[in-house]
Amino acid sequence: MATNTESVDLVGDEAATNLARAALFAALVGAFAYVTFPNPVSPVDVTLQVLGVFLAGIFLGPVWGGASLVLYLAAGALGAPVFEGGSAGFGQLVGQTAGYLWSYPVAAAVVGAVVHRGATLRDLDSVGLPTLVGAMVLGTVVIYGFGVAGLMLVLSLGPIEAIAAGAAAFLPAEALKIAAAVGVVRSDAIAAA
Amino acid sequence: MTLSFAPGDSLAHRLDPRSKLLVQVAFAAVAYAYTTPRGLVVLTLVAVGCLLAADGGPRDLWSYRVAFPVLLFAPLVAGATLGAPWFRVERAATTGLASYRVLLLLVVAAAYVRSTPVRESRAALQRTVPGRPGVFLGVGVALVFRFLPLLKRDLVATREAVRTRLGAERSRRERMRLVAVGGLSRALSRADRLGTALVARCFAWNPTLPRLAFRRVDAPALALAAAMFAAAVLRVA
C-alpha cells in the first residue's frame, strides 16, 4: 500500500450524499440496460437506459445528473458491464454506439437545466407538465443528434443511412419512456428530499 | 457469459493498468488513422495478440453480440441506393471496413476488461486525474461496480412482482413506469444510507490507494502504445 502522510481531508455531508446518489444513478442506468421491453415498431427490443438518463437529470439536477452519467461512462470503460446488452470496455466509447454514450451526460445536464431552470434544484411538484415533457424531448433530440452523428463518423454513413441503421427503430419507443418518466416523477412512491 | 475480470497470471494481468489504457487509446487512434485493408490486417494481429496476452478467447466477445447486427447491417444500408445501380459496392466496402474497425476496438477492450481488477482500474483513474475530480471518479466507479448487481436484482424482483400480480396485462408505458419507480426508489434509499455510512466512516478526499508502478514488463506495452500513437500522428500530419 502507498503511504499518505498528509492529514485527512473529509468530504462534507452534502457532497458525500450527492456523490452516493450520482454513483447509484450511474449504476441504475447500467441496471436499466438489462431491462428490455418489446419495441412497438421493430423486432429489436428497447432498454430503459435513456429513461435512466432522463431521471438522473430530473432528480439530481444538471450538475450531479451530468456527473452521474460521466461516472457511468467511466465505469463502463473500465469494465463494469453497464453498456447495451451488458457489455463493457473502452471500445464502446469509440465504437458505433459512441455518439449515444457521449450524449448521455450532456442530455442529463440539459434535462436537469430545463426542469430546474438553472443549477439549483427546485421542488419537482412545482414543475409543470409542459416543462417536464419539453425537457425530455430536448434530451431525446440531444441523444439522437449525437447518436446519429456518431454513427455517421464511425461507420462512414450518410445522415439518412445512419438514421435507418441506428435511430429509426428506436425513436418511437422514446415517447413511451417520456410518458413513463412523467409517471415516475408524479408517483407518490418516490420522495427525493 | 458476460465479460468481466478473470484472475490470472498472463502478461496482460501483470501490466500496470495505465499501460493497458494507453495501448487502448493508441489502438483507437491508429485504427481510425489507417482504416485500409492493409492497415486493418496489421491491426487484427495486434488486437488478437492483445486478447491472447490476456488469456482471452472468442467467448469473451460474446457480450458484444448486441453490437453485431448494426455492424453487419451498416454496410448493406450504406451500399443500397434508390435507383440504378441499386447497390454501390465501394460505399458498402468503406462502411464494411469501418464496421470491422469497431470490432477490433471491442477485441482490445475485452483484453483490458479480462485482465484488470476493479481496484487497479480505480487506482489508475485516481492517479491519472488529479485532485478532487480524480477522487470523485475513482470512488464513483468503485461504487458503480459494487452496486450494479444489487440494483439489477432490485429490478428483477420488481419485474417478478409486477408479473405475479398480472402486471403483464398492463400497457407497456405502465410496466415501464412500475419498473422505473421500483428501481428508482430502491436506488434512492440505498444512496441515502450509503451517504450516511460514508460520512460516519470519515469519508475523505485523500484515501490510501494500492500502489501502482510501471515495471520492466510494462516497457513493451508502452513502446507499442508509443509506436501506434506515432503512426497515427504521421498519418494525420
Structure description:
The complex is a heterodimer of chains A (193) and B (237). Chain A contains 7 helices and 2 strands. Chain A has 193 residues and is mainly alpha-helical. In chain A, strands 1-2 form a two-stranded antiparallel ribbon. Chain A is globular. The termini of chain A are far apart. In chain A, 58% of the residues are buried. In chain B, helix 2 (17-33) packs antiparallel against helix 5 (89-115). Chain B is flat, with a radius of gyration of 23 Å. Chain B has 9 helices and no strands. With 237 residues, chain B is mainly alpha-helical. Chain B folds into 2 domains: 11-116 and 212-236, no CATH class; 123-200, no CATH class. Classes of the chains: A mainly alpha (193), B mainly alpha (237). Chains A and B meet through helix 1, helix 2, helix 3, helix 5 and helix 6 of A and helix 2, helix 4, helix 5, helix 6 and helix 7 of B.
SSE order and pairing:
The complex is a heterodimer of chains A (193) and B (237).
Chain A: H1 13-32, E1 36-37, E2 46-47, H2 49-77, H3 91-94, H4 98-116, H5 129-155, H6 159-166, H7 171-185
Antiparallel strand pairs in A: 1-2
Helix pairs in contact in A: 1-2, 2-4, 2-7, 4-5, 5-6, 5-7
Chain B: H1 11-14, H2 17-33, H3 37-53, H4 68-79, H5 89-115, H6 118-128, H7 131-164, H8 172-200, H9 218-236
The pair of chains with the biggest contact is:
A-B, 81 and 87 residues
Number of strands of chain B: 0
The biggest sheet of chain B, with number of strands, parallel, antiparallel or mixed sense and barrel status, is:
none
Computed structural class of chain B: mainly alpha
Order of helices and strands of chain A: HEEHHHHHH
Helix percentage of chain B: over 70%
Q: Low-confidence segments of chain B, ≥5 residues, pLDDT <50? A: none
CATH top level assignment of chain A: Mainly Alpha
Proportion of residues in β-strands of chain A? under 5%
Shape of chain B: flat
Number of extended strands of chain A = 2
The N- and C-terminal alpha carbons of chain B lie at a distance of: 42 Å
Helix/strand-derived category of chain A reads mainly alpha
How helix-rich are the residues of chain A, as a percent range? 55-70%
Mean pLDDT of chain A: 88
- Average pLDDT over all residues of chain B: 88
